Amino acid sequence: MENQRESHMQQRKKRRVVLFPLPLQGHINPMLQLANILYDKGLSITVIHTNFNSPNTCNYPHFDFCSIPDGLLEGGASTSDVIALIELLNVNCVVPFRDCLAKLLSNVEEESIACLITDTVYHFTQPVADSLKLPWIVLRTSSISSFLAFAATSLLHEKGYFPIQDSEAEAPVQEVPSLRMKDIPIIETHDAENFYQLLVRSMSQTKASSGLIWNSFQELEQDALTTLQRDFRMRIFPIGPFHKYFPASSSSLLSQDKSSISWLDKQAPKSVLYVSFGSIAAVNETEFLEIAWGLANSGVPFLWVVRPGLVRGFEWLEPLPKGFLEMLDGRAHVVKWAPQQEVLAHPATGGFWTHNGWNSTMESICEGVPMICQPCFGDQLVNARYVSHVWRVGLHLEKRLERGEIERAIRKVILEAEGQEMRDKIMQLKKKVDVSLRQGGSSYQSLESLISYIESF
Ligand code: UDX
C-alpha cells in the first residue's frame, strides 16, 4: 500500500507544464506566480519566453527556461502602443514558438508534458497547440468583470456603437450591469480596427481552449462568474489571488527600491498615500504637475513611484519646479519603482492612488488599503468602476486631473470618515480573500480541481 502511494506520488511529480507569458510586467507577474503555485503542487515547469522583457531566470532556479527570438528589439518594440506590440508578438512568435514547443515535446525524458498554459491575448498559440495535440489552457490576467466587458465591446462594435458620442457616455451598458458607456475598456492604438480584431480573435480562441484560469476569487466576482459560466461553457478556475500563495513576488523587471520600506517605517500608522500608475500608463507634463501640487497641497505624507518614462517626453523628475521636494521637508519619498506588495502590506500605508491595473487592484484588496482610482485605458476603466461603485472601496477621480480635486480626494481617503468607511469595507473583502485561500475555501478548491484536471491529460 505504502509502495503504491509512493509510486503514485512519483508519477504525479513527473508531469510538466509549459507556460508562455506575455512580456509585460502586469502579465509576467501573474504567470510566474501561477508557475510557482503549480510547482508547489508537484508539477515541473518550463517557461518559454521572448527576448523582449525576458524574466530574471536567476530568481527561478527550480524552473526550466527556453528563450525564443521575437524580432522585436530590431523593430524598436515599445509599450507605448500595447495593441501594436501584441499584434507583432502574435505574428513574430509563431514559428519560433512552434519549433521550441515541438522540440520540448520530442525530447524523450521522464516527464511528459501535460499541457500548455498561455496568456489569452496570444491567440496564435491555439492552432500551434492543436497541431501538436497538446491540451491548451489560458490564463486571463484581468478581472472576470472586465473580460465580460471586453466581450461586450466586441458586440457593441459589431452593432456600430463606436466611437462613443459625448451624449451617450453616461448611458448604462445593458450587456454588463454597473458599467456606463464611458467605462467600456477601449485601448487606443494607431488603427482602432486592430483592437477590435484582437478582441474577436482572443474571445474565439478562449472559447476553444481546454480551460480558463483567473487571478480572481469567487466571493469578489460571483455575479460575473455566473454570467461567465453561462456564456462560456468551459472549465473555469478562479484560483486567485495568486500572490497570496507566496511571500513577495520576484518577477519585477525593474529593480525595486527598498528605501521605500525604511521611509515607511518612520511614518505613523495608516498616514501615507502610496501613488503608482503601474508599468505602462503615462501622463503629460501638465497632468504630472497637477498631480505633484495636489499631493503637496494635501498635507498628507506620500510615497510616489515616478517610473522613468511616466511623463511623456521626459526622463524622470525634470518637470518638477526647482526645490519642490525639499520644500516638502521629508513628507514625500519618490522612487523609480517600489516593492509594491510590501508597501501595501506596510502598517503606515493608508491609501493607494492607483491606475487600477488588475494586479494593483487585487494587491490593494488583499492588504485592505482603500483606493483613489485613476484609470488610464482598457480593463483599468472597468476595475475603477467596480472599486468605486460596486465594492465601494475607493474614490473615482473622474474629472480632469486638477490639483484642487486631487487634494480633496486625498484628504477624504486618508483623513476623513468617507475613507474610514471604505477601509472598513475593504477589510471585509480582505477577510474573504483569506477564507477563499484556506482549506475548503473557494480558491483552494478551484486549485485542487485545476491540478486534478491537468493531471488527467
Ligand atoms: C497591465 C495593465 O495596465 C493592466 O490594466 C492589466 O490588468 C495588466 O497589465 P500594469 O499597468 O503594469 O499592467 O498594472 P498592474 O496590473 O497593476 O501590474 C503592475 C505590477 O507591477 C503589480 O504586480 C505591482 O505590484 C508591480 N509594481 C508596480 C511594482 O512591483 N512596483 C511598482 O513600483 C509598481
What does this structure look like?
The protein is α/β, with parallel strands linked by helices and 457 residues long. It folds into 2 domains: 8-249 and 438-455, Rossmann fold, CATH 3.40.50; 259-433, Rossmann fold (3-Layer(aba) Sandwich), CATH 3.40.50.2000. It contains 17 helices and 13 strands. The strands form 2 sheets. Strands 3-2-1-4-5-6-7 form a 7-stranded parallel β-sheet, with helices on both faces. Helix 14 links the parallel strand 12 and strand 13. Helix 15 (403-415) packs across helix 16. The longest helix has 21 residues, at 417-437. Uridine-5'-diphosphate-xylopyranose (UDX) is lined by residues 24-27, 29, 141-142, 252, 256, 276, 278-281, 305, 337-338, 340-341, 357-360, 363, 378-380.
Secondary structure layout plus pairing:
Blueprint: H1 2-13, E1 15-20, H2 25-40, E2 44-50, E3 64-68, H3 82-92, H4 94-106, E4 112-119, H5 125-131, E5 136-140, H6 144-158, H7 192-208, E6 211-214, H8 222-231, E7 236-238, H9 259-265, E8 272-276, H10 285-298, E9 302-305, H11 324-327, E10 332-335, H12 340-345, E11 349-354, H13 358-367, E12 371-373, H14 379-390, E13 394-396, H15 403-415, H16 417-437, H17 442-456
Parallel strand pairs: 1-2, 1-4, 2-3, 4-5, 5-6, 6-7, 8-9, 8-11, 9-10, 11-12, 12-13
Helix pairs in contact: 6-7, 6-14, 10-15, 15-16
The protein binds uridine-5'-diphosphate-xylopyranose (UDX).
